[in-house]
Amino acid sequence: MKILISSCLLGEDVRYDGANSAIAYTNSFTFSEKEKFMDILCENEIYSFCPEVSGGLSIPRAPAEIISAKKPFMVKNEKGEDVTVNFLLGAKNTLDLCLSENIKVVLLKSNSPSCGNEKIYDGTFSGKLVEGEGLTAKLLLENGILVFNEFQINELYSFLKKCNKSK
Ligand code: SF4
User: Fold this and answer.
1) Which among 25, 68, 71, 83 would be 20 to 30 A from 137, CA to CA?
2) What are the residue boundaries of the structural domains of the chain, listed by start?
3) Which residues of 37-53 are buried (b: 16+ CB within 10 A; e: fewer)?
C-alpha cells in the first residue's frame, strides 16, 4: 500500500528547529513499536513529505501556531509574521500528491500545526495543547484520507495487516 509519512518522522531534518523526529531514534517508542514501524516501511510504498517545506518555508524557521482553526484560517509564527499562505499551500500540495498517487493512508507527526491529527498548540505559544487538527491533516481528513499519528503505530500496523488479509 502507498503511505505518505511526515518527513521528520523518517529522520529528515525538516523541522522548524532544523532537527527531526525520527521514530527510530526516539525514546518515546517501545522496541515493538519501532519494529512495527520498520515493518511498515519495508512492506509498503513510502512517500516522504513535509507540508511546511513544500509550502515554501525555510529550515530552520520560527515556530508557528494556528491562531484561527476555522475559516478564515490564520497561522502566525513566533515573530508575529503571517504564514497562513505557506501552511495552506503545504496542505494543498500534500492533498494533490495523495490524489495524484492514489495515497489513501498517511502517518503524520502529532501536535504539528500542519500534521497534527488530534491536537494542536492553542495559538498562544505557551505550550498548551488543545483538541484540533493541523491544516494539512484537516484537509486530508476532509477528503477521506485516513490519518494516523506516530503514537498510533499499533493501529496503523493492524489496519495494514487487515487490508493485506482481505486482498
Ligand atoms: S510540517 Fe509535518 S513533516 Fe514538516 S516538520 Fe512539521 S511535522 Fe514534520
Assistant:
1) 25
2) 2-165
3) beebeeebebbebbbbb
